[in-house]
Sulfatase-like hydrolase/transferase (Helicobacter mehlei), 296 residues
Amino acid sequence: MVLDNRFWLMWLAPIVAGLFSPYARGLKCLIAYEVKIAFYGFVVLYLFYALFALIKSPLVVKVLRNTLLGLSLLFALINFFLSHYFDMLFTPNTIDTILATNSKESHDFLENMVLPHSGVLLGALSFCVLFLYVVRVNVRLSRKIHATLIAMFILGISLHVIKLAGTSGGVMEDKGFSRIPYGVNETIQRVIPLVREGHAIYTSLKEYSNNQAIWQAIREPLPKDYLKVDSDSVPNVVLIVGESASKNFMGIYGYPVPNTPFLSDLEERERESKIYLSSQTPFRPLPTRSPLSKSY
């Protein structure tokens, strides 16, 4: 089995993207996170190449390696873009947001957020192409090297499992958003390249039918008298959406990330209705008969 330049590029890409991850805040978190990506990324790619070595057709092997290369670079670029510019990760929630985004929000997002940074993305792609043409590192693995690598894999995974067992709650926390996952599920979902993205896609598609039913119910036209107040209704209703919600980071108020697809869709359908989105501090008295903020 030969580890070619595609292998090393696929191995390095997630490591570089991981430098910008929210889980890599602080030197300690950065080192721990990058070591895990490097170790598990090598294990996953080694297993793929070992499976490819069992295939007799060189053409099929070439197609599979190029497909794996394309997916690895695509996921690395997505993780870099989300982490560096939005402090986000490639998770099922991210995929759900993309699936729920309407065409207008997608167009605004591409125009306001992707195109201004297209130079960075093109530069990263150019570097990958240059790496493939310039770097010619082909490492042929003998049986002795195979045995050594497998022993190292077993030892590394065993030590990690032991550490998992000794970590309370499966997660070691640092300040703020810097959380290095040590639980098994957290490792699969947030650390292992290709596996974490595959898990996110699988989880999102698994719940897609349920989400579609919910979205369809939300998109259904509301009754004409749904704002009617009868004698049994309470005089006031206070709806608390989120303690840390801010309209500065909501797509419905102009934030370029389409993170409020339901509200934006409701805005398109109910422009003439007297519906108000409240973002009021609890330290000021609420008005009783006036809009609290921007109406839609």
The beta strands are 2-3, 139-140, 171-173, 179-181. The two ends are 62 Å apart (CA to CA). The longest strand covers residues 171-173. Residues 168-182, 278-296 have pLDDT under 50 and may be disordered.
